[in-house]
């Protein structure tokens, strides 16, 4: 399902491996121990995260055998409940089409990481998008996502450089979707963003297979 050379180390390379092993040992007797175990299945989780003004909209959707399980997606706005957060929550509902708002606490973050599990994660500008989520996970749970991951932005850029070395690199998901003729709707919205990055990943993976054959 996922080519191993697409996987980026979760925290960097050698330092990341050491950190992951340290956290694995630290949590081996906890309910989170299974999150640090290698994943042996064929599913991925596409993630999107938008954060500002004390609210973070997150969407996670499972990709299984080229099928996106959007009806079972995890989608919510997580609110810190700070002063005047109501306006920020309404803004997230409008911008990112997120209807459910949960308090940003241990319970909601545990629900999210249990949904993601130890499956590899993919997404557009993944490290940048996940930075606020990683910060909150470390604050509330004590660890960041240990999952192997694929930044679809870097994957897109590698494919574009190979086929069109002189092409201008783009950082917008909508432009990348248009470049590879991937149909999608409103990728700025949380679930649509995660779904679009998954569709783009599948398109680029198909390019790789075609190039080898």
From TrEMBL:
InterPro entries: RNaseH-like_sf, RNaseH_sf. This is DNA polymerase III subunit epsilon. It comes from the Bacteria.
């Amino acid at each position: 399902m996922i080519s191993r050379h697409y996987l980026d180390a979760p925290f960097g390379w050698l330092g990341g491996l050491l950190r992951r092993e340290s956290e694995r040992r630290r949590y081996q007797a906890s309910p989170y121990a299974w999150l640090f175990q290698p994943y042996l299945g064929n599913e991925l989780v596409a993630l999107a995260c938008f954060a500002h003004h004390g609210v973070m909209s997150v969407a996670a959707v499972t990709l299984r055998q080229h099928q996106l399980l959007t009806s079972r997606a995890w989608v919510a706005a997580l609110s810190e409940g700070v002063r005047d957060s109501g306006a920020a929550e309404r803004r997230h509902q409008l911008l990112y089409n997120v209807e459910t708002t949960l308090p940003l606490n241990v319970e909601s973050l545990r629900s999210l990481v249990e949904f993601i599990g130890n499956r590899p994660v993919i997404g557009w500008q993944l490290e940048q998008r996940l930075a606020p989520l990683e910060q909150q996970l470390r604050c509330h749970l004590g660890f960041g996502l240990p999952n192997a991951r694929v930044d679809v932005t870097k994957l897109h850029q590698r494919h574009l450089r190979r086929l069109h070395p002189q092409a201008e690199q783009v950082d917008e998901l909508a432009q990348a979707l248009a470049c590879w003729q991937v149909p999608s709707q409103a990728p700025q919205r949380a679930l649509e963003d995660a779904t679009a990055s998954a569709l783009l990943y599948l398109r680029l993976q198909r390019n790789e297979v075609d190039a080898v054959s």
